[in-house]
Amino acid sequence: MTVELEFEKPLINLRKKLDELKLITQNADVDLTDEIEKLELRLHNLEEEIYKNLEPWDRVQIARHPNRPTTLDYINYLFEDFFECHGDRTFGDDEAIVAGIAKYKGRPVTVIGHQRGKDTKENIRRNFGMPHPEGYRKALRLMFQAQKFNRPIICFIDTKGAYPGKAAEERGQSEAIARNLFEMAGLTVPIVCIVIGEGGSGGALALGVGNHIHMLENSTYSVISPEGAASILWKDATLAKKAAESMKITAQDLKQLEVIDEIIPEVKGGAHNNIKEQANLIDTVLKKSLDELSKLSKNELVQDRYQKFAKIGQYTVE
Q: Tell me, what's the pLDDT at 2?
């Protein structure tokens, strides 16, 4: 499925002109080599300019791209022998979260992540990547199992937020999220969290209490969506672009605020343009994190996590 992002329209128009010139050169007895070379240079320069100066709202659009790689996409490229586990042993299974055991460079690990769909049918099956309480309880069950067998935990974050429906509230949505926050803080194994798309509110935080938190270059991480913030602040959801600029939700902003540890660069135009290359970029950072954290003792891992979150934010005492 081809999706045109607003800020990419000048590039799309230029690529169409370039294709037209190449087609004319191929089918007609006309030499347009010089014009094609000039247009290719112009396209290259325009790409450099646009992708170097993306605004927060542009990054929101990339993070929401329907073809953006999901947790299962990255699992296929980064891990071996992935065995998915199902159910929370209390209510049922939630397909908005995938969780299981795998090997990473020969080492057993537990992998957990939000999972959205690529089309309407799959999105409905996975509830558009918005977990119910049983999803978070499934995740926590696998985390406890990882601690029991001393396996590092790798979490992929990609959700608009936890499902806010009546059934989710009846089954204890807020309690499930709070329980994950509490328990993850005290786990004695390395936890690496990577925001691969949208990191929305408590639904993202429930998988986000890690020793290291990384973000893809065009991902977002925020307490609320730009549309939601605009509705509250200005009673107008159409001002989402303005809200995105003031909310500090991009990887660049959050790195500066020391909320995240490292920005993982994306391939030109966004991760959806080359999943294999993007997985390699994630692999480099993930390996580095696990190598560093594997040197810490159980107590040091807990203290490292505590110190990480204790220093986030600014406050003054009067």
A: 56
Q: How do residues 217-256 score in pLDDT, each as one tens digit?
A: 999 999 988 988 999 999 998 899 999 989 999 999 999 9
Query: Residue 144 sits in which domain range?
Result: 62-311
**Residue 241 is part of a domain; what is its CATH number?**
3.90.226.10
On whether both 15 and 136 belong to a single domain, the answer is: no
Per the rule left: phi > 0, alpha: psi between -120 and 50, beta: everything else, 128 is left
Which of 236, 269, 295, 213 lies closest to 67, judged by CA?
A: 269
Q: Is residue 90 part of a domain?
A: yes
Model-level pTM?
0.88
Look at residue 318 and tell me if it is in a domain.
no
